[in-house]
């Protein structure tokens, strides 16, 4: 049977604050553990793109068969932005989110509330 | 003066439904107009990654100095997922969002509500 995505996937998007700083400066360590975790969760990793910024911080992007995982780190705040969109099934992004939360140990997580940005929403 | 990102950027993340289908099948046209628009808005485009899926649909990712723009298209639903995160300033992602909305002419936009996914939020 051919797989068909649902029309809307699951997204988890947040800023994790006051995280363990050892993962924030360069992408290698985080890339390694996320690659393992995504494979364990049977996501198809098609491409990995990263960029390290001056003076610090990086972006890490996993292009998946099932959508994507994007990370930005902000060492100046000891924080990371985590954005996972998956169109494979419900609750699909949660094990990876939980995994990274356990590794990074944020003291606070701010979920980005989309209902606060409806200003150009064409629906009344 | 050295630029410093705010601790939390602006994110616009949504599914645009029933869009103009000419942009959905392959990334070239959308990549071209988005590249122009992002440059016009003075975003620094560091890398562009894309992947075209079988039997159709694609992912397009712009890695920016100011964070990222990710697009996934679902021709089977005539829809796209749009996710822009920018840590340059308030309302920073809006002109690009508005631009793509005008180009794709969605009949409906579903903003992904993050407050519906707090199940693993460590905050009470």
Largest interface (C-beta under 8 Å): A-B, 53 and 53 residues
CATH architecture of chain A: 4-Layer Sandwich
Q: Which value, in Å, is the CA radius of gyration of chain A? A: 15 Å
Number of beta-strand segments of chain A:
6
Reading side by side through the largest sheet of chain A, how are the strands ordered? Answer: 2-3-4-5-1-6
Low-confidence parts of chain A:
115-124
Instruction: Report the total helices of chain A.
Output: 2
The CATH top-level class label of chain A: Alpha Beta
Provide keyphrases for this structure:
homodimer, 124 residues, S-adenosylmethionine decarboxylase
Structure description:
Chain A is α+β, with helices and mostly antiparallel strands and 124 residues long. Chain A has a single domain (10-113), classed as S-adenosylmethionine decarboxylase. In chain A, 19% of the residues lie in helices and 35% in strands. Chain A contains two helices and six strands, in the order βαββββαβ. In chain A, strands 2-3-4-5-1-6 form a six-stranded antiparallel beta sheet, covered by helices on one side. The longest helix of chain A is centred in the N-terminal third of the chain and has 13 residues, at 28-40. The relative contact order of chain A is 0.27. The model of chain A is unreliable at 115-124 (pLDDT under 50). At the A-B interface, strand 1, strand 2, strand 3, strand 4 and strand 5 of A face strand 1, strand 2, strand 3, strand 4 and strand 5 of B.
């Amino acid at each position: 049977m051919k797989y068909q995505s649902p029309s809307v996937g699951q997204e988890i998007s947040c800023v994790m604050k006051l995280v363990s700083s050892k993962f924030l400066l360069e992408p290698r360590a985080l890339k390694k553990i996320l690659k393992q975790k995504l494979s364990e969760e049977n996501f198809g990793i098609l491409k990995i793109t990263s960029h390290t910024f001056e003076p610090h911080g990086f972006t890490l992007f996993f292009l998946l068969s099932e959508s994507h995982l994007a990370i930005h780190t902000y060492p100046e705040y000891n924080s990371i932005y985590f954005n996972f969109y998956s169109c494979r099934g419900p609750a699909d992004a949660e094990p990876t989110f939980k995994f990274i939360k356990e590794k990074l140990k944020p003291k606070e997580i701010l979920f980005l509330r989309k209902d606060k940005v409806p200003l150009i929403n064409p629906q009344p």
